[in-house]
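Why should sequence recovery work at all? Because a backbone constrains its sequence more than one might expect. Tight turns favour small or flexible residues, buried strands favour hydrophobic ones, and helices have their own preferences. The token representation captures these environments compactly. In the example below, the structure is given first.
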């Protein structure tokens, strides 16, 4: 279970880092909006404000997505072992190793590569509800599930 705990914590760190970045972006945009003063070039000023508003809206969407990912991670009990692949499973296959949680990319633990993927990804959709020794074909490549942690 140490592998699952490590993967889970790395996903939490990934989400925390994204949250810090997005909050800083929102703060910077807010400061820019507040420091904008009406210049003699009114159209230029209004265009700048509109662009900042669009950036703030984009950052707000990113913030909402991060909050959804945090909620997904909160649902995972890393101490539960399942017979079938589900949210929170570490899946060892003949092709690669996956942690079904959030899309956090490649994570290396003890010189072994794991891919943290969302349950909504095409790969996860193929793996969900499968058991050890089940065979999966993804993009023409076949592989087998060796174990589920």
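From this structural description, the recovered sequence reads:
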């Amino acid at each position: 279970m140490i592998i699952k705990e490590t993967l889970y914590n790395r996903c939490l760190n990934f989400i925390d880092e994204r949250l810090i970045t997005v909050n800083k972006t929102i703060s910077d945009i807010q400061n820019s909006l507040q420091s904008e003063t009406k210049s003699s070039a009114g159209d230029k000023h209004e265009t700048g404000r509109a662009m900042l508003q669009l950036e703030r809206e984009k950052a707000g969407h990113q913030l909402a997505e991060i909050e959804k990912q945090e909620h997904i991670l909160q649902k995972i009990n890393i101490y539960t072992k399942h017979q079938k692949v589900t949210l929170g499973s570490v899946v060892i296959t003949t092709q690669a190793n996956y942690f079904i949680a959030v899309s956090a990319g490649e994570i290396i633990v003890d010189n072994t590569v794991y891919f943290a993927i969302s349950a909504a990804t095409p790969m996860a959709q193929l793996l969900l509800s499968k058991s050890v020794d089940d065979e999966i074909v993804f993009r023409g490549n076949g592989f087998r599930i060796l174990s589920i942690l």
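A few observations help interpret the result. The beta strands are 90-93, 97-101, 105-109, 112-118, 135-138, 141-148.
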